[in-house]
Fold this protein.
Amino acid sequence: MNVLKSAMRRPMRLARLALPALLLVALASCTGDSATYPQSTLIPKGDFAEMVDKLFMTTFWWALGVFILVEGVLIYAIWKFRGKPGDAEPTQTHGNTTLEIVWTIIPAAILAFIAVPTVRTIWRTSEDPGRGALVVEVIGHQWWFEFRYPEYGIITANELRVPTGRKVDLRLTTKDVIHSFWVPQFAGKRDMIARHTNHFWFTAADTGVYSGQCAEFCGTQHGRMGFHVVSSDSADFGAWVWQQQHPVADTTFAKDSLYQAGKTAFMAAGCIGCHAMAGQPTANLADMVGPNLSHVGARHHLVAGMLTNTEAELARWLRDPNAVKEGSLMKLPRPLTEGEITALVHYLRSHR
Amino acid sequence: MSHTHESTGIKSWLTTVDHKRIGIMYGASAFLFFLIGGCEALLIRWQLHAPDQTFLTPEMYNQLFTMHGTSMIFLGIMPMSAMFFNYLIPLQIGARDVAFPRLNAFSFWTFLLGGLLLNASFLFNAAPNAGWFGYANLTSKQYSPGLNTDFWVAGLQILGIASLAAAVNFTVTILNMRAKGMGMLRLPVFSWMSLITQILLLLSFPIITVALVFLMYDRFFGTGFFVPSAGGDPILWQHLFWLFGHPEVYILILPAFGIISEILPVFSRKPLFGYTAMVFSGCFIAFLGFGVWSHHMFAVGMGPVADTVFSLMTMLIAVPTGVKVFNWIGTVWGGNLQMKTPMYFALGFIAMFIIGGLSGVMHSVAPADLQQTDTYFVVAHFHYVMFGGSIFSLVAGAYFWWPKMFGRLLDETLGKLHFWLMMVGFNLTFFPMHMLGLHGMPRRVYTYADGLGFNGGNLAATIGAFMIASSFLVFIINIIKTWHAPANAPADPWNGATLEWSIPSPPQHFNFAVEPVVTARDAWWHAKRALGGKAPEPKQYPEDAVHMPNPSWWPMVVSIGIIIFFIGLIIGVKLPVVLLGGATVLVGIYRWAFEPAFS
C-alpha cells in the first residue's frame, strides 16, 4: 500500500508521459498501407473518398491543435495550482466577461474554417454524376448485395465490377431491411432503404480488388455481409461485360459427366428454387430470392465476401451453410450427398 | 408523531416516500444494472479479442450488444443520475422532500420493475436483438418475429413512464420548493443542470413514446407505420427516434456537467468560474439538442440542404460546450487544488470529455461522417462522452457525496487506485477504436475477418475492458471495506459550498430542522465565511413540528399494474392479463388519491 501511495502522489508526472505517448500511437497508426488496412478510409483510392479524406484531415489538424492546447492548459493548471498543506484560501474570483467573450468567439472562428470546406464538400459530393456514368443498381438482401447493370443487361452478386476512370452512378435500394453500401477506399456510406432509391457515386482511380461491407445493422449476419469491388481498365472491363453477356454454353461440357451430374443436382436438390443460373430454366429470372449464380466461377469470393472462391471452400459451404454462416437464409431442402457436392462444385466453378 | 415512521426493516423501504431512501434504491439498482451491462460488454470484448471467434453465436452477440446499449443508457446512467437528483436536489435547494413524494416512489418502482422485465428476456433466450436504436423495418414482425423486440418495446415504454413522472416531479420541486432567498441565479449548478435535464425529458420522451406506440401497433395489431410493403416508411422511425435520441444524449451528460461543476469549486477552494455562463451554456446546449437529430442520419441520403443545416447546427454545439470546458479550467486556475479522489475523477472527466467533444466536431462534418458513421470511430466517440464524460462524473459524484449519504468516507488509496485503473483501462479500450473505425471496422459486427488490420486494436480494447472491470472491483472492495468500519464522516468533510453539507451525515429524515434562508450563491460557504470560517451552530429541531408524508404501498401497486399490463401484451396480447394490469393501475391510483398524505 505504501508503494501505491507514493505512486499516487505524483500522478501528473504519469499523465504528462501518457498523453504524448497516446498521441504518438495515434499518429503512427494513421499511416498505413492498403495491404495492412485494405478497408481503410485513410487510404482513399477514388475521387469521392479523396475529397472526404482531405476534409477529414483539415478537421483532424484543427482538432489536434485544440486538443494539445486545451489538455496542455489543463495539465499545466493541475500541476501549477496543486495545493500544499497550510496554503491560504485562494483569491475568490467569480468569472471574467472578457474571457467569456474571447473563448466563445475563438472556437466559433475555428469552426468557420471547418464549416466552409464542409458545406462546399457536401454540395460537391451531392452533384449529379452526369450522363457518361456507369449506372449500377444495387439491391440489398439479408445478407448479400445484388448488382444490376441496366446498360449491359447484367445481374451479378457480391462482386461489383467497375472500370477505372469512369464515374459509377449507384442507385441503391433494398429488398428487405435497411442496409448500407460502403467501400471505404472509394466513398462513404449510403443507406439502402425499401421504397427509396438512393443515389451515390464514385470513380475508381486504380485497378485492384477493394473490400466493402454493409454498414447498417441488418440482423443476424450483418457482421458477415461483405462484398468486393473489382476495378479494371476499360479493356478488361469490356471483356468482363462480354463474358457476362455470353454465358457458358452447356454444349461445351456435353462430354463432361461430372458437369452434367452437377447440372442435374442443381435442379434435383432444389438450388433452382432460389437461384438464377445460366443454362437452367431460371437463367433469365431477375427476382430470385438468392444471388444470381451465372458466372459464379469467375468471382473472387463466395458467400457475401466471406469465403475465397476455391473448390474446398465452395464444398464446405454446400455441405452445411448454417455451420459456415450461422443463421444464413440459404436453407438446403435436404442434405446434399458428397457426390452431389463434388458435382455441384464442378458445375458452378465451370461457369466462369 | 409523524417523524416516528422513520424506521428500519424491509417494509419501511418498500413503502418509503423519503427522497433519500428512494435515491439510495435508485443508486443500488442502477449500479446492479450497470454491472450487468458491464458483464455484457466483457462478453462482447471477449468475442472480439481476435478475428473469427466463435465464443458467441451471432444471435447471442446481437442480443448482448443491444442489451449493453439499452442497459447502460436506460438502466445505468439515467437512473444513476436519478439517484443524485433524488438525493441531492431537495438538500441543495433546502427542501424537506420532493414536491410529490409518492410519485417519486412510483417512478422508482416503475423503473426497477421495467428494468427487471427487460432483463428477464434473457431467461427466454429472447433478449432484444435489434440494437438500442431499434431501426425499422428490422423491428417489424416480418424480420423480428420473436419476443425479443416485444420485450424491448414494452421495457422502453415502462421506463419512459418512470422518467416522465420523475421529470414532472423534479421540475416542480426545483421551481417551487427552493428555500427562501434562493433565486434561480443562486441555485447550485447541479440543480440547474438537473432542471434542464428534466425539461429535456419532458419534451423528448413523448416523442419516443409515440414512436414506440406506432411500433407496438405494427407488431401487435398489424398496422403499417414503418412497414414499406404497407405504405409505411422506415425513415419515419429514424426521425422520431433521433428527435428523442439526441436530447437523450444531453439527458445523459447534463447531470454529469452539474456534478463536475459542484466538485471542482470545492476542491479548488474557489467558486465556479463564470456561473451565469455555465447556466446559460447549459440551456443553450439543451435548446440546440433538439435541432441536430439528423446528424445521426447523414448516410440516409437526405440531400445537401438538410446535410448542410444539420452539419452547421451540430458544429454550433461545440461553442457552448467549449465555454463549459474553459470555465471548468478557469475554476481550477488560480485555485488551491485538494487532490482527493472526487477531484481526480472530475479532472479526468475534463481531460476525457475534451477528446469526446473533439471527435464530435469531426462527426458534424457531414461528408467525413459518411465514412465515420456506423464504425468504431463512433463507438470511440460516444464512449468518450458517455464513459469518459458521464461515468467519470457519476463516479466522482459517488466518492464526493458517499459520506453525506452513508456517513462514511471511502478509502482514498483505494479510490485513487480505482481512478488510475479506470483511466488507463478506459483509454486502452476506447482510444484504439478511433483507429479501428477510420481503418474501416463497422459497428455491431459479431466478428471480423483476419487481414483487415483490426486485430491489434481489438486485442488492446479487450485488455482495457478487463482493466475497467478490475477498477470497479476495487470500487466494490472500497465500499465493503468502509461499510464495516465505524461511521467516520463529519457533516461537512470537504468544506462544501452547498446546503447539503450544512446538515448531519447522513441527514435526518426531515433534512432541515429549520428551513434555511439563503442570501448568496454557494450558500453554505457564505454562511461559514460570515462566521470567519466556522460552521454555524446546528439548529435545534422541534421534532413534533416537522410533518413528513406517510409511507405508502400504492405507488408500487400502480407500478406492478403497469408491468402486468405490458406482460399481457408481450405474451401475445392476452386480454385478461392486460385488463388485470389496467384494473390494478386504476385501483392503485384510486387508493393513492384517497390515502391521507399526512397523518
Remarks:
- Chain B has a mean pLDDT of 95.
- The radius of gyration of chain B is 24 Å.
- DSSP finds 17 helices and no strands in chain B.
- Chain B touches chain A through 101 residues (CB under 8 Å).
